[in-house]
Specification:
The structure holds 2 protein chains of 2 kinds.
Chain A: H1 2-10, H2 12-33, H3 45-58, H4 63-82, E1 99-108, E2 115-120, E3 133-135, E4 140-147, E5 152-159, E6 164-168, E7 174-178, E8 186-193, E9 203-206, E10 218-227, E11 233-240, E12 249-255, H5 258-272
Antiparallel strand pairs in A: 1-2, 1-12, 2-5, 3-4, 3-12, 4-5, 6-7, 6-9, 7-8, 8-11, 9-10, 10-11
Chain B: H1 2-22, H2 40-44, H3 51-69, H4 74-94, H5 110-133, H6 139-163
């Protein structure tokens, strides 16, 4: 007993170090599997407010550019509106709509790590929840991962854990969109079968399989493609429409039918067994 | 005097975190180089202090950086490791000299100060990127990131340490 105590006293610094290292490794590895650590993220009050404060100051520097982007988007939407074939009025009943849209601002962005997260200035009180899609006027950005009262963190598509259903525009060949962590301008689309005709420059959009994003939200264009190791599927490099280094205004999309879809899929899964 | 160093360290703690997350985490030089200047805290921290407190403070420093930059607990793991290794590194760089009461960082030669800082930063970066990337298939990427970002960190830390050099301590 005496020796054990002596041992503890002699190595107390080393043991203390091991304890702290162990704690940090647990935080690191428990979240490798699925979601980001619930405690260690920048969607908390302190870091969120500090980022929001500095964003307030720096946001003036790119106002002109942001205005230009928003005007372009308005122009595109107006074009679609005036060229709509069915001239019918939009139904006012909100029960008919499938998606809700919330606007937000990026207050912290990162694109140089393996697992990149973006922090935005909307949270629970603006009815932002986990697993809602985030897009910009140009294309998709990521999926909401953690929320606090006033802020949320978004798992960027530039994250090695990211996996989003995507397809080639005007066809129904779908695959999954991942990132190989090499280049922040390019993501990879996997599992497109070999028989599909591909051309460089084809547009990639989100697929209908996702219960997070609406269908046909732009992602990017095909930059390069070749067969993967199994020789039966393509591995496609997609160059993104979004400039991931320069993002300010975002839209957060809530799929109102998501709960129903998930429940239905779950019950179908259990019936099979 | 004790109060003075105490406040200086708190001030450094807060300022280094803010400078790191608000300036250097957004630098993205060449697309991926974000120097980690907060390692300077370990370089500046007084030598004759309780080691347990020192390790705990460094753990908290890393953890705060992690919370701000959404990097799980990678910075905490790397920082707590170099905090534990600091006495060994100092013994290696300064010889047995540093254990004497009269030893001061400023009284050592420039080469010694540089080696001390470089060893702290290189060890920190290797641990950090090994944990971040965590695959043997990407050993080259780990080396590339550790070397380039390490060089940038050393350069900036040298600039900072000469800019804010202290006469005392």
């Amino acid at each position: 007993m005496q020796q054990i105590i002596n041992f503890l006293i002699r190595y107390k610094i080393f043991l203390f170090y091991l304890l702290l290292l162990f704690i940090s490794l647990i935080f690191t590895f428990q979240s490798h599997s699925y979601h980001q650590s619930r405690f260690l993220n920048s969607a908390n009050y302190v870091s969120g407010s500090i980022y929001a404060f500095f964003d307030n100051t720096t946001s003036y520097f790119d106002l002109r550019e942001e205005n230009e982007k928003l005007v372009q988007e308005n122009q595109r939407l107006r074009y679609q509106l005036y060229n709509k074939t069915n001239n019918g009025a939009q139904p006012l009943d909100t029960l008919e709509s499938n998606y809700l849209v919330v606007r937000g601002r990026v207050i912290k962005n990162s694109y140089s790590d393996q697992r990149n997260y973006i922090t935005i200035n909307k949270g629970n009180k603006d009815s932002v929840e986990q697993d809602m899609g985030v897009i910009t006027s140009k294309g998709i950005l990521g999926i909401v991962e953690n929320t606090s009262n006033g802020f949320s963190t978004v798992q960027s598509i530039l994250n090695e854990k990211s996996n989003i259903n995507a397809k080639i525009k005007n066809s129904n060949h779908f695959g999954s969109l991942i990132w190989d962590t090499k280049d922040y301008k390019t993501v990879q689309l996997m599992d497109i079968p070999r028989l599909v005709q591909l051309t460089i420059g084809d547009t990639i959009v989100t697929g209908a399989m996702s219960s997070i994003f609406p269908e046909n939200i732009p992602i990017g264009t095909i930059k390069k493609f070749d067969l993967d190791t199994s020789k039966s599927f393509y591995r496609i490099d997609v160059s993104l429409f979004n400039d991931m280094t320069n993002i300010n205004n975002v839209y957060i999309i809530k799929n109102l039918n998501r709960q129903e879809i998930l429940e239905l899929q779950e019950s179908t899964g259990t019936n099979d067994q | 005097m004790i109060n003075n160093t105490f406040f200086i360290n708190i001030l450094r703690f807060v300022l280094l975190i803010l400078v790191q997350v608000l300036v250097f985490n957004r630098l993205n030089f060449f697309g991926y180089i974000n120097p980690m200047v907060y390692v300077l805290f370990l370089y500046w921290y007084p030598i004759k202090k309780n080691r347990t407190t020192f390790i705990l403070i460094c753990f908290l420093l890393g953890l705060f950086i992690d919370i701000f930059s959404d990097t799980l607990a990678l910075n905490a793991a790397a920082t707590v490791t170099i905090a534990y290794l600091r006495p060994s590194i100092m013994r290696f760089v300064f010889g047995v000299n540093y254990e004497f009461q009269s030893f001061k960082l400023n009284s050592s030669t420039k080469a010694q100060q540089f080696t001390f800082l470089a060893l702290l930063i290189v060890t920190h970066h290797i641990i950090y990127f090994t944990l971040e990337i965590f695959s043997f298939a990407n050993v080259l990427l780990i080396f590339k990131k550790s070397i380039t970002i390490g060089a940038a960190s050393i350069l900036l830390c040298l600039l900072f340490s000469s800019l804010f050099s202290t006469r005392k301590e």
